[in-house]
């Protein structure tokens, strides 16, 4: 980790980090009762978690940790903070992690022993070992499982230990992640001997329980390890071909034809070896693909059997299911056509002058309609009755005939008022 980058991040997270008065009080050792320094403890605990998460670190060394150094001044309370984090389960020592290569019975025995004995750890012992930050370990384990699930759609997958370590950013990190997954029943470590010692990991990428290691898992691990070795050989051969090619060109430019011929022969031999290696790699990958396809076919077959059983239980025929699917597809297609039509609407191609002309025509039409539909003295009771009946007013108790004659009565009443005036 870049110490300058860490210090810059801390200054962003803690605006008063460079304040001498605040820092002096913050860097003092804890004294008194816990409620006296509880806020300081929470500050340092949260800051340790923030820095570790920001830089992707979940294994820290308390002795060599210089994150919080301020010109030679380091917080005197960090050891106490780490001890409390250990007692509260936020950190564990690397030596306390379960061995992923041990069996379930031995791991269970160790867990029971720790629960019964509850070994206490002193502040000095905390500084003697590296510490694993448990919340970040869980996050990293979840990320590894998600990455593996993106390349596999079966419930489990087998990877070599080399591949697993590359996902965890190191061997120590991989050991911690594997220990956590094994303790959760989400991973098994595989060790086989096929002329050489081969190690791998079987990981569950679904919520289902992880099955035990099978002979097929061991065969897949052997094929995967063979693939890695062939890929490594191809990289070496590519380097040899490139070196021989450059040497041959340099020899030709300098006029050394014999030397150029020797490099050309080496280039030809390297290319032939590369073709053989590529052929072997393709064959191994073909076998792996066949195994993967067979597992996928098995899953599809089981899904079809489950679907047939459900259809039989709820008494739905295959024709009805087919009709439902066709109706759903038609609905989806019509929705897509509507969205496509809305997206392709040529609003940007419309000319502003054409819009103004259309508005003028609409205004003229509205004026002509208003001039034709103006209320006058020649309106009859029948036309009013028809208009009111179309409105379907249900809140009034008057009949349509009463509504039709109402305007006439109002007109007569108005005349009488005027005469009286």
TrEMBL record:
<feature type="coiled-coil region">
    <location>
        <begin position="318"/>
        <end position="372"/>
    </location>
</feature>
<dbReference type="Pfam" id="PF25880">
    <property type="entry name" value="WHD_CHMP7_1st"/>
</dbReference>
<dbReference type="InterPro" id="IPR005024">
    <property type="entry name" value="Snf7_fam"/>
</dbReference>
<keyword id="KW-0175">Coiled coil</keyword>
<protein>
    <submittedName>
        <fullName>Charged multivesicular body protein 7-like isoform X3</fullName>
    </submittedName>
</protein>
<feature type="region of interest" description="Disordered">
    <location>
        <begin position="390"/>
        <end position="421"/>
    </location>
</feature>
<feature type="compositionally biased region" description="Basic and acidic residues">
    <location>
        <begin position="408"/>
        <end position="421"/>
    </location>
</feature>
<dbReference type="Pfam" id="PF03357">
    <property type="entry name" value="Snf7"/>
</dbReference>
């Amino acid at each position: 980790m870049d110490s300058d980058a860490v210090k810059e991040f801390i200054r962003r997270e803690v605006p008063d980090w460079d304040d001498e008065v605040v820092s002096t009080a913050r860097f003092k050792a804890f004294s008194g009762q816990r409620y006296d320094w509880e806020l300081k403890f929470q500050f340092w605990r949260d800051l340790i978690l923030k820095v570790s998460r920001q830089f992707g670190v979940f294994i820290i060394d308390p002795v060599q940790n210089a994150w919080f150094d301020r010109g030679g001044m380091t917080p005197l309370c960090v050891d106490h903070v780490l001890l409390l984090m250990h007692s509260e389960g936020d950190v564990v020592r690397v030596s306390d992690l379960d061995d992923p290569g041990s069996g379930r019975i031995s791991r269970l025995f160790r867990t029971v022993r720790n629960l019964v004995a509850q070994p206490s750890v002193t502040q000095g012992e905390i500084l003697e070992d590296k510490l694993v930050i448990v919340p970040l370990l869980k996050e990293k384990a979840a990320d590894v499982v998600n990455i593996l699930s993106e390349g596999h759609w079966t419930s489990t997958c087998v990877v070599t230990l080399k591949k697993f370590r590359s996902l965890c950013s190191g061997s120590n990190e991989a050991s911690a992640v594997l220990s956590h997954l094994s303790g959760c029943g989400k991973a098994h470590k595989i060790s086989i001997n096929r002329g050489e010692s081969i190690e791998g990991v079987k990981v569950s990428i679904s919520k289902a329980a992880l099955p035990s290691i099978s002979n097929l898992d061991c065969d897949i691990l052997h094929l995967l390890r063979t693939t890695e070795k062939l890929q490594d050989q191809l990289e070496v051969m590519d380097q040899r071909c490139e070196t021989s090619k450059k040497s041959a060109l340099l020899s030709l430019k300098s006029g050394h034809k014999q030397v150029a011929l020797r490099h050309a022969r080496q280039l030809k031999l390297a290319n032939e070896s590369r073709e053989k290696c590529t052929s072997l790699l393709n064959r191994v990958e073909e076998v792996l693909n066949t195994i993967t396809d067979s597992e996928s076919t098995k899953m599809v077959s089981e899904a079809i059997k489950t679907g047939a059983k459900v259809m039989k239980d709820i008494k739905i025929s295959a024709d009805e299911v087919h009709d439902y699917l066709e109706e759903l597809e038609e609905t989806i297609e019509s929705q897509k056509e509507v969205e496509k039509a809305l997206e392709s609407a040529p609003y940007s191609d419309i000319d502003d002058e054409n819009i103004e002309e259309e508005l003028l025509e609409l205004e003229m039409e509205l004026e002509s309609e208003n001039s034709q539909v103006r209320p006058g003295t020649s309106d009859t009771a029948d036309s009013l009755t028809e208009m009111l009946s179309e409105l379907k007013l249900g809140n009034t108790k008057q009949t349509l005939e009463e509504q039709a004659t109402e305007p006439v009565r109002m007109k007569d009443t108005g005349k009488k008022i005027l005469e009286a005036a």
